[in-house]
């Protein structure tokens, strides 16, 4: 019997590393485009995600060699996507972590070779790692929210009056019984505005946008990025609400007629 080898190009199945690198390049390019469309910088995403800048940049550029193990890369991609407002879990599932080939081998060799039981332990280990990453991410997110809530300490009118003596900021100097504030966004930030006890606005305003609100009794402004928000009271000189990436809340009461 003669054997013949087919001439021409032979299809070679790419390795899992090559597949991961290809997928990372595609996903990273999509995340970079979405971030730029929203007018966000990598430094701003560092504040939102708590992920080091070098890892965010490596994801966008598809540099797999600069990232940790694939299972952790999938978790980082999920957090990155969540911060941009898309479904991070579904988006990150397109990045392969290498467990599929192990499951395939275990299915067709399970009965023939019972000695492969350590593979089941490996799969269990993979599952535990996935659960640990998800749990750690949830814990970090909860800790971040709690820290932000502790940082938001409302300023009373008395405290603002004391600050006004030092730097003339955020106090109503008009003689009427209303107060008006205007905000201009230096960077995309979440803002909540309450006028006379009612929520007038709550959401994310993009960089460069400007809004105004008016109240007859009291006006409260809250943000998670005080350095990215310029605020003016009754058309006075606009000033930053605080430091970049810091949460802040300011209460302003209308000054009654004397």
Point out poorly predicted stretches.
Answer: 1-9, 100-117, 152-174
Provide the CATH topology of the domain at 16-94.
434 Repressor (Amino-terminal Domain)
- Oligomer state equals single chain
Order of helices and strands: HHHHHHHHEEEEEEEE
Q: What sort of overall outline do the alpha carbons produce when their principal axes are compared?
A: elongated
Estimate percent helicity. Answer: 40-55%
Organism: Dolichospermum compactum NIES-806
Protein name: Cytoskeleton protein RodZ-like C-terminal domain-containing protein
InterPro entries: Bact_Cytoskel_RodZ, Cro/C1-type_HTH, Lambda_DNA-bd_dom_sf, RodZ-like_C
GO molecular function, one term: DNA binding
Structure notes:
The protein is α+β, with helices and mostly antiparallel strands. Strand 6 and strand 7 form a beta hairpin. Among the domains are: 79 residues, Orthogonal Bundle (434 Repressor (Amino-terminal Domain)), CATH 1.10.260.40; 75 residues, no CATH class. The protein starts with 15 loop residues before the first helix and ends in a 5-residue tail after the last strand. The chain has a 4-stranded antiparallel beta sheet, with no helix packed on it. Strands 3-2-5-8 form a 4-stranded antiparallel beta sheet, with no helix packed on it. The protein is built from 8 helices and 8 strands. The longest helix is centred in the middle third of the chain and has 35 residues. It is elongated. Pfam families: HTH_25, RodZ_C. This is Cytoskeleton protein RodZ-like C-terminal domain-containing protein. One of its GO terms (molecular function) is DNA binding.
């Amino acid at each position: 019997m003669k054997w013949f080898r087919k001439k021409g190009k032979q299809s070679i199945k790419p390795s899992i590393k090559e597949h991961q690198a290809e997928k990372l390049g595609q996903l990273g390019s999509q995340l970079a485009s979405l971030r730029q469309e929203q007018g966000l910088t990598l430094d701003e995403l560092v504040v939102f995600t708590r992920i080091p800048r070098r890892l965010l940049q490596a994801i966008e550029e598809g540099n797999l060699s600069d990232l940790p193990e694939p299972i952790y890369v999938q978790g980082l991609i999920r957090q990155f996507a969540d911060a941009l407002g898309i479904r991070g879990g579904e988006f990150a599932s397109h990045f392969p972590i290498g467990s599929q080939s192990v499951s395939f081998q275990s299915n067709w060799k399970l009965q023939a070779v019972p000695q492969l039981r350590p593979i089941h332990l490996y799969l269990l280990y993979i599952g535990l790692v996935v659960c640990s990453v998800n749990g750690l991410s949830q814990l970090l997110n909860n800790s971040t929210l709690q820290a932000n809530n502790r940082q938001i300490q409302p300023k009373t009118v008395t405290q603002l009056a004391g600050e006004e003596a030092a730097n003339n900021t955020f106090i109503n100097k008009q003689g009427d019984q209303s107060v008006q504030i205007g905000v201009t966004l230096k960077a995309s930030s979440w803002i909540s505005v309450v006028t006379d006890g009612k929520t007038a606005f709550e959401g994310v305003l993009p960089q460069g946008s400007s809004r105004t609100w008016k109240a007859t009794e009291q006006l409260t402004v809250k943000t998670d990025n005080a350095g990215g928000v310029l605020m003016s009271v009754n058309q006075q000189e606009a000033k930053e609400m605080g430091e970049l990436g810091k949460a802040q809340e300011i209460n302003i009461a209308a000054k009654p007629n004397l």
